[in-house]
Specification:
Blueprint (H helix, E strand, L loop, with lengths): L2 E7 L3 E8 L3 E4 L9 E2 L1 E4 L5 E3 L1 H4 L9 E3 L11 E3 L2 E3 L1 H20 L5 E6 L5 H13 L7 E3 H14 L5 E7 L4 E8 L4 E10 L4 H15 L12 H20 L5 E7 L4 E7 H26 L8 E5 L6 H11 L3 E3 L6 H12 L4 E2 L71 H8 L24 H6 L70
Parallel strand pairs: 1-10, 10-11, 12-17, 14-19, 17-18
Antiparallel strand pairs: 1-2, 2-3, 2-4, 5-6, 5-7, 8-9, 12-13, 13-14, 15-16
Helix pairs in contact: 2-3, 4-9, 5-6, 7-8
Length: about 550
């Protein structure tokens, strides 16, 4: 019997659902104890990869050979360090997808007739192209792609009924990403309105880190100070991290949770309350509510026009999420009975009914790859502008979907008016280069004071400027008459304002007072010298 398959390859877990004859939709048990299996990859000693529960069971004893949250690394040029080897994130995702397909094919006895994969709504063409490469490496040829909010909306419309024309807001807070979208009911399914909003690095993994940070702080930093090269310390840190995940899930149904901290150096138990946990995650949850508002503005609808806001994803079961969304938008919130399964169940419905279940499903896949070329070979070319210059449009970042229609560039080379460039400023040379090019500045020559010259009161306003001028050399001032030329020059003193009785003013005031010397008053300025400078002694 033929069947259709929907797979949700998430950041923290993998879920799959089967639809038989287009009527019955059920989950496929992948884990040993649960329906889903963790998104974990382990490198064995022989170089092969183990995924799912088989890898999670050995994560505590071999933390260096385990990789968590690989989906977040898709598109990152830095490979994932796994057991001392560098593996690209696409290869690890393909190993998880290949394992799911092999297990379901072995259980059903035949491969699925149609497979639909889901991805975050905020992925751009570049990451969607890499995700298609992952599917091709796992053995799927050109599988249909569906955004996670659309898949959740389809499942809601099938189970609870969404009449034609009704509007539904989708709040998808998963393990590693967040998506927000607005859907409208149709006769055969749903269609997405506006541009979805989302955050690539926000989800339950970040909340786990918040709880771990709270436990580490309560222990005085004992967890973060563990030696990363010690195998016992790494295993203890992995156990504490897993206990923090369990405590986070416990706080969704209880007011407090206890986290055992079993380290090689100390053993204790830390209690985390729900109020402390909500205080830690309130700020990121506020940003998700703002993203949902932006999705409503993009769709051109108000919050009062929504039938309800559907909360999807494992982290949406946190009580603070429903409370904040309801208070911010003032509308009814609906939590799915199985938030972790809604995306996979909706993908199975789309796989059974085809693209008619979701409006614009074909438009969600910009390329139809043949074989397995790289994403650069399938990159959509940039169209030229409407002028005659045939210059390409500005390149958009890989994480953004190019707008449609393409806007005209604001500064096209052909339509840009001619402008007169201002004259270029000459580069100011350093002082040493200016002296080399223009020569050193001339030094002032001053005449000595003669005995009997009337004292002249210095100009106090010129004292500050005299300190910034270049001091003349000692050779420029000849020795007074009768003095020994071999005697050392007297110490120079800066002129100070006269605090005693006011002296008789001289015939003129000088702008450059000179220091005192033998036979001169300490406050008398030096007259300018008109004679040529005395040569410097060797």
């Amino acid at each position: 019997m033929s069947y259709s398959l929907g797979i949700d390859l998430g950041t923290t877990f993998v879920a799959a659902a089967i639809s038989r004859d287009g009527q019955r939709v059920e989950m496929v048990p992948l884990g040993d104890r649960t329906v889903t299996e963790p998104s974990v990859v382990l490198r064995r000693d022989d170089g092969s990869l183990a995924v799912g529960d088989a890898a999670a069971r050995q994560a505590g004893s071999r933390p260096g050979d385990v990789a968590w949250g690989v989906k977040r690394r898709l598109g990152d040029p830095t490979p994932v360090a796994l057991g001392g080897e560098a593996r690209p994130a696409g290869e690890l995702l393909a190993a998880m997808l290949r394992d799911v397909l092999a297990r379901i094919t072995a259980e059903e006895g035949e491969p699925p007739s149609r497979v639909v994969l889901t991805h975050p709504a905020n992925w751009g063409p570049y990451r969607r192209g890499l995700f298609e490469d992952v599917a091709a490496e796992a053995g799927l040829e050109d599988p249909p792609m569906l955004t996670e909010p659309e898949a959740a909306g389809v499942h809601f419309g099938v189970t609870r009924g969404l009449a034609e024309g009704e509007l539904l807001g989708v709040y998808d807070l998963g393990g590693g990403t967040f998506d927000a979208a607005v859907l409208r009911g149709r006769a055969a399914g749903v269609e997405i309105l506006g541009a979805p909003e989302g955050m690539e690095h926000l989800g339950g993994v970040d909340f786990d880190e918040a709880v771990l940070g709270r436990v580490d702080q309560a222990c005085g930093g004992a967890v973060s100070e563990l030696d990363a090269h010690d195998s016992r310390a790494r295993a203890a840190a992995a156990r504490v991290r897993q206990d923090c995940v369990v405590a986070k899930e416990t706080l969704s149904v209880d007011d407090r949770a206890n986290v055992p901290v079993l380290l090689p150096t100390r053993q204790e138990e830390v209690t985390v309350t729900r109020d402390e946990f909500e205080a830690m995650i309130r700020a990121p949850l506020t940003s998700t509510v703002d993203a949902l508002r932006r999705a409503l503005e993009s769709a051109g609808v108000g919050a009062d026009a929504l039938t309800a806001v559907l909360l999807v994803g494992g982290s949406s079961r946190i009580p603070l999420v429903a409370r904040m969304v309801g208070e911010a938008l003032g509308c009814r919130t609906v939590v799915d009975s199985h938030p972790k399964h809604a995306v996979a169940l909706g993908a199975a419905v789309v796989a059974a009914r085809g693209s008619a279940a979701v409006g614009g499903l074909a438009a969600a896949r910009p390329w139809a790859p043949t074989g397995r070329p790289g994403p650069r070979a399938r990159r959509r070319p940039r169209p030229p502008c409407r002028s005659t210059c045939l210059s390409p449009m500005p390149r958009t970042p890989p994480s953004c979907t190019p707008p449609t229609p393409w806007p005209r560039p604001a500064r096209c080379p052909a339509t840009r008016p001619p402008s007169v460039r201002p004259p270029r400023r000459r580069r100011r040379l350093p002082r040493r280069d200016r002296d080399r090019v223009a020569g050193p500045a001339p030094r002032p020559v001053r005449a000595p004071r003669r005995p009997g010259d009337p004292p002249v009161r210095p100009d106090l306003r010129a004292v500050s400027t005299a300190a910034t001028t270049r001091a003349p050399s000692r050779a420029a001032t000849p020795a007074p008459t009768g003095a020994d030329p071999r005697a050392p020059a007297p110490a120079r003193r800066c002129p100070r304002p006269d605090t005693g009785p006011r002296p008789t003013p001289g015939p003129a005031r000088l702008a450059h007072p000179a220091p005192s010397g033998p036979g001169r008053s300490p406050r008398e300025p030096r007259l300018p010298d008109r004679s040529p400078p005395t040569p410097r002694r060797s």
